[in-house]
Automatic annotation (TrEMBL):
Entry keywords, A to Z: Methyltransferase, Transferase
InterPro entries named among the record's database cross-references: Methyltransf_25, SAM-dependent_MTases_sf
One GO MF term attached to the UniProt entry: methyltransferase activity
The name this protein goes by in its record: Methyltransferase domain-containing protein
Residues covered by the Methyltransferase domain: 41-136
Amino acid sequence: MTDLNRYTAELAASYRTAHERTDVGDESFYLDCATNTDGRVLEAACGTGRLYLELLDEGVDADGFDVSRPMLELLQERAATMGVQPTVWQADLRTVGTASAYDLVIVPYNSFCNLTTVDDQLAALDALHAALNPGGRLVFDVYVPQYDVIADAFGEWHSEREFEHDGRTLYSRTRTTIESQVDQTYRCEHEIRDTDGDEVAREEFVLAHLPPQQVELLARHSPFEQWSVDGGFDGDGLDDGDGVQLWRLRKAA
């Protein structure tokens, strides 16, 4: 299996800060999905709990997992301040790591792009299918590759932000470069520096572009019985100019 992306403690803190300040646009959609599900919910790649803790706060019977231990530690810290009791564990999308069964599995915010080979992508669909009850649904979103954005933004440092971690002020920034034109993968560099400009942490991730045709082929080769795609979170069809592809896959009843 390919090693999947992980986060150091500093990068996990930077990620949490970034998403506390940014409205990703998916919160109300996934919350509606979960609250309208009769049964248990699983969030795959739940990270620092941006969505997962909101599900618990709304009374949803939800579990979660993530590949990054530092992410889960930050989730637990925030859960304690909110007064909710999370059930989370460390695992990746290809293994899931539970024998429980759910009526809804969600994989928000491009997390499926961490799977960079067809074998890993199909393994994840198999594992997520196995985690569902008969008739259960898998819902996930990935961005639509927009090559004008890629041409303008790749190779430049961006998303510079200040955050606090362990009593220190730190600064993070990100740069994206093409990893493989043949495989349609790209490399994200995350750099953390202190107030003196010294490097504190650095991590590099490889992610995959997933055009809709490729996701449909994966769905066709998966155990799921039905699948559909929308362009964004408002239920409209996928058209040119849409930035998000939202996939719904259903297990046979």
